Amino acid sequence: MTALSIPAPAGPEQDYFVRLFGTLGKWALVTGGATGIGRMIASALARAGANVIIASRKESACRQAAEEIAGEGAVGALFAMGADVGAKDGVTELCERVAALTDGLDILVNNSGKTWGAPFESFPYEAWQSVLSVNLTAPFALAQGLLPLLQRNAQPDDPSRIINIGSMVGTQPIAEDAYSYAASKAALHHLTRIMAHELAASSITVNAIAPGIFESRMSAYVTEDEERLDRVESKIPLGRLGNAADLAGLVHLLCGRGGAYMTGAILNLDGGLGIVPPASLFS
């Protein structure tokens, strides 16, 4: 049987996927955007034409990330802002600096995160407020402080977008000695749904990505130990860690016109870890 070959149409139809998933000219803020998953998201958006503000605690790290992403073929402009979103003053200052740079914001990615590990018996009291202030309070406070900018750019058929970065440990009762981290991510997933309901009337969507284990500096303790890496990957149904391309695809869906009707979703991006059944009770 001979395959039927139809040439691609000329003209605007070639831009079909760009119209669905493109972010050309949009303004985005990515917290924790200097490293790891945040940097992957910042790169994906900038390479698709968005103007990306990279915010993190160390402004020098943000500048370095911006320079590297620019060298990767970014189309959009890149900006670096130092901000400690774990403190009220840091959130306020970041919102003010963003407002001074642009009069409208299309995309807010709440990615900044903090963790703390210790056995249950010795897990410190201070590890709760310290972690929750970054992982849970900051996403709410930033959405609140940047709401006028998000509302300004929001349209019924092309809403402004908020993406909260949760975690697979927020979907299952897994702690691995990081009790406040796991609890904060579960709470962030719930807050995502609450915010989606609250902000829908303003044409702002709110969704969460719940990543599994990705190739990043945070997972270096896995990737740099071949035996440990093999053991971890053997537990992932798709057999590997996540990478930048896996993340970029979902981000473009959530931020592009194709994702305009999705809100309040918690999207597992974990290679299938979220569908691994519990150990059998009887075998």
Protein architecture, described:
This protein is an alpha/beta fold and 283 residues long. The protein has a single domain, classed as Rossmann fold, CATH 3.40.50. The chain contains 10 helices and 7 strands. The chain has helices at 16-21, 36-47, 59-71, 88-101, 126-145, 147-153, 179-199, 220-223, 226-234, 244-255, and strands at residues 27-31, 51-56, 78-82, 107-110, 160-165, 204-211, 266-269. β1 (27-31), α2 and β2 form a beta-alpha-beta unit. α2 (36-47) packs across α10 (244-255) and α5 runs parallel beside α7 (179-199). The longest helix is centred in the C-terminal third of the chain and has 21 residues, at 179-199. It starts with 15 loop residues before the first helix and ends in a 14-residue tail after the last strand.
Summarize the structure.
The protein has 283 residues and is of the alpha/beta class.
Tag the structure with descriptive keywords.
single chain, Rossmann fold, 283 residues, alpha/beta
- Known CATH architecture: 3-Layer(aba) Sandwich
What fraction strand?
5-15%
* Structural class computed from helices and strand pairing: alpha/beta
The tally of helices reads 10
CATH class: Alpha Beta
Topology overview:
Blueprint: H1 16-21, E1 27-31, H2 36-47, E2 51-56, H3 59-71, E3 78-82, H4 88-101, E4 107-110, H5 126-145, H6 147-153, E5 160-165, H7 179-199, E6 204-211, H8 220-223, H9 226-234, H10 244-255, E7 266-269
Helix pairs in contact: 2-10, 4-5, 5-7
